[in-house]
Amino acid sequence: MMKKVNRIDLLKKAITLTDGQRQSDYGKPVDNMQHIADIFNVITNGKLTARDVALLFQCAKIARRRISPTVEDHYIDDMAYCGIEYECVKEGKY
To answer: Global pTM?
Structure first.
């Protein structure tokens, strides 16, 4: 019998993604969001912040959930981006 997935399971996976191998691969999440913002700003001549990028990534996950609401990955990533957004705010990157 398949185990029922709940929000705690999804949150644990989100933690693993942002604090595990991805952090080793990409560095601190806030720094990574700022790096992405810097690149976006060059392309768009904009003034995006690290928090803006985290918000945009959340928007992407919301859009994907509208099309495929049963894909677990959308929820896990959105939880992770929400946590990263909070870190951005706490570090003044907004």
So the answer is: 0.85
